[in-house]
Amino acid sequence: MSPVQELEDIEKEALRALQGAGSSDRVRELEIAYLGRKGPLARVGKTLGTLPMEERRTVGQAANRVRGLIESAIAAKLANLDRMERAGRLEAERLDITLPGRTPPSGKLHPLTEVLEEVVDIFVGLGFQVAEGPLVETDYYSFQALNIPQDHAARSMQDTFYVNTGNPQPFVLRPHTSPMQVRLMETTKPPLYVVVPGVVARRDEVDANHLAQFMQIEGLAVDEGITFGDLKGVLDVFAKQMFGANLTVRMHPSYFPFTEPSAEVYVSCFACDGSGCPTCRGEGWIEIMGAGMVHPNVFRAVGYPPETTGFAFGMGIERIAKLKYSVNDLRSFYENDLRFLDAR
Ligand code: DAH
User: Fold this and answer.
1) Which of 97, 112, 195, 202 is deepest in the core (most CB within 10 A)?
2) Per the structure, how many domains does the chain have?
């Protein structure tokens, strides 16, 4: 084999070996093996002196070329391995310094909506249906049909917003949800078990305990042989589910034109168990609603026989929510301050 051929074989072999080298240490080994003093290039170099002048030049040039090729292949391989080793090291030494993601705040129901739904749910559980009626209501349904005639002193109990529609028939913003008792009975035969949640409005001076617009829920049960005991039983179940199983329900005689007898409904204070605290203003009892047996005149107005039996009740949702969440000022419910709304 001629020395030039030999050199070409050395070149091929060296390049193949370099290609397969997996570490820089291995490349250094190959560098010594091929380019070192005891390597094949050196061996060819030593024979140069024995060659005739002409061939000496050709072989010498070929040897230099092969050396140069192998050297640059080594340099390239080392650079490549270095890059890979560095990438591997970075990967292995990786530190997770990402911050937790920002969770967008999720919305939730307004406290009044929550309380309203809770109240409705309790009555639905007792077999009541749910109905809704108009906020703009006639004088007839708001007062007359509820046994509150034009000149009745009870009219002054409700300071009402009147709506000028140009119609001779006076319209009002309903001052209570009771008109729906009449509308429901007009269109339905007993038995009737319904609750009516809804917005009402009164010309009240707005302060910590009064709003000009708020919500009520009306209840109406009409069936054969309904007694005051049924009323008390239903309200007892409601109060215990709403405020706590250990409380006592008490009813005081009261007056509403559309019920006879009428009652104010109290629960023993769930905050202090009745011993007297700020929640019950030291009374031990908290008023939660008005109620009574439907007045025969209301039955007459809807065309029911006056001896029909039924009970009704009405309560303010804001008041219930205020008690439930120990809120001092009713206006907080309508200010939409997220600090308040998120506080539950
Ligand atoms: N409508 C009364 C009010 O707004 C509340 C009320 C009292 C409703 C007694 C009733 C009831 O159905 O029986 O103050």
Assistant:
1) 195
2) 2
Among the listed residues 228, 217, 341, the one whose alpha carbon sits nearest the alpha carbon of residue 294: 228
* Residue minimizing CA distance to atom 12 of ligand 1: 313
The verdict on 251 and 292 lying in the same domain is yes
User: Do both 148 and 247 map to the same domain?
Assistant: yes
Helix or strand (DSSP H, E) at 285: strand 285-294
Pocket of ligand 1 (CB under 6 A): 176, 178, 218, 256, 259, 290-292, 312-314
Q: Which atom of ligand 1 is nearest to the CA of 177?
A: 1
- Take atom 3 of ligand 1 and give the residue whose Cα is closest: 176
Mean pLDDT of 18-45: 90
- Mean pLDDT value of segment 98-115: 90
- What ranges in the chain are assigned the alpha helix state H? 3-20, 24-35, 40-47, 53-92, 111-125, 139-142, 179-187, 228-243, 296-301, 317-324, 338-341
Residue 291 lies in a domain: yes
Would you say residue 157 has pLDDT above 60? no
Residue 53: its pLDDT value, please? 86
Kindly give the distance from the C-alpha atom of residue 178 to the centroid of ligand 1, in angstroms, as a whole number.
6
